[in-house]
Amino acid sequence: MDELSIAIAGLRTVVAARSSDVTGVARDRYQGFLSPGVSDWRIEVDVRAGPRPLWADDVVVARDGSPARFLITREDFAASVDLDRRCGSVTFASLDEFSVDTFVRIFYSLALVERRGLIAHAASLIRESRAYLFCGRSGSGKTTLARLSSDATLLSDELSVVTMTDGPARCHGTPFWGELARAGEDLAAPLAGIYFLRHGDRHVVEPITPRRALERLLPTVVFFARDRDLTARVLDIAADLVEAVPCFELTFRRDPGFWEVIERG
Amino acid sequence: MVDHYLTRSTQTAWRVYDGEAVIILAEDSTLNTLNAVGTLIWEAADGQTPVGAIVARICEEFDVEPARAEQDATAFVDKLCQRGLFTLSRLPQRQP
Predict the structure, then answer these.
(1) Nearest to residue B58, comparing CAs of B78, B72, B48?
(2) Which among B17, B18, B26 has the least Cβ separation from residue A227?
(3) What are the E-state strand segments in chain A?
């Protein structure tokens, strides 16, 4: 087996495949996040062409009999992961970077729950050793904010990881990018604030209550498992997060002046 | 409806902030937020308390006329039953 190891938010996963073509795709895609060492997870990867459905079905993540075993299916891959044994396998219909990345995003959304971690649709940046999380759906301005922050360290312009493992909440860089088409740095910093984005003609930062923040945060969390226990754990992490970290609505226009307003706030 | 028993779905995860509930239904990840009266009904929906007793609590805590409270509670319960968040039964149910 050809193997490589990637680590996102400190969660290290060995990717093993019979063909080095498969690990080659992962090596290229996650080059800033390759991390040899003792692994937390092992995923075996295979590629087997088969008939594909005529329509692109949604992702389905469902419990597979045992409490910790989940099946993940989409039109371009089928996977099984065991959260207790920390291992899994995935078969792709073709060797495609997009399919691999989609699986990795979903897999980490499950695996990080144990570390009290979440993946959110959010840009994140480090400035003066503190991380800032900017949440929003497509078109909300995540990439725009990242582009306007040339003096900040990019963690992600699309999907950010926040952990509440022990101590204060931390935001981690990810290889998951949006329009910027550039991976974040493999770094982490204490989370100074969570900002929910809104376009406007001036910069305004308004504090919001934890309840309002939870309502805004939950729709941005990447989570597909239709499972009561995991959903409850994700809700707990999100609720603890908005109680531990100051949350704001950020109205902004397209210039870097929003940082001044954030720092004043 | 007042003599029926109301039970929260076991497929939900929820938290209450300042008297207002935030609820996720696991089967489709839909998010529901309730106001204070809705949260009172939600928390009281233990499968053991008849709807009539819940309506009486609403009247007591929110100073509402019984007829109005029953009408609003019935509409609310219907809506949440349709969303899969509540079930109504003629007999008491095990605690969710």
Answers:
(1) B72
(2) B26
(3) 2-8, 11-17, 41-47, 60-63, 69-74, 77-82, 87-92, 117-127, 130-135, 153-156, 159-163, 170-172, 188-199, 204-207, 247-252
Laid out side by side, the sheet with A2-8 consists of A2-8, A11-17, A41-47, A87-92, A77-82, A69-74, A60-63
Contact check, Cβ <8 Å, A226/B20: no
**Interface predicted TM-score (ipTM) of this complex, two decimals:** 0.82
**Cα of B17 to nearest chain A Cα, Å:** 6
Reading phi first (left if > 0) and then psi (alpha if -120 to 50, else beta), residue A80 is in beta
**Closest chain A residue to B33, measured at CA:** A215
The SS3 call for residue A261 is helix
Nearest residue of B to residue A61, measured between CA atoms: B27
List of chain A residues whose C-beta atoms are within 8 Å of the C-beta of residue B12: 228
Cα(B49)–Cα(B47) distance, rounded to whole angstroms?
A: 6
pLDDT in tens, chain B (96 residues): 788 999 999 999 999 988 999 999 998 888 999 999 999 999 999 999 999 999 999 999 999 999 999 999 999 999 999 999 999 999 998 776
Contact A214 B22 (CB under 8 A): yes
Interface of A with B in 188-227 (CB under 8 A): 209-211, 214-215, 218-219, 223, 226-227
**Interface with chain A: mutation pick from B15, B18, B32, highest number of A CBs within 10 Å:** B15
**What pTM value is reported for the model?**
0.91
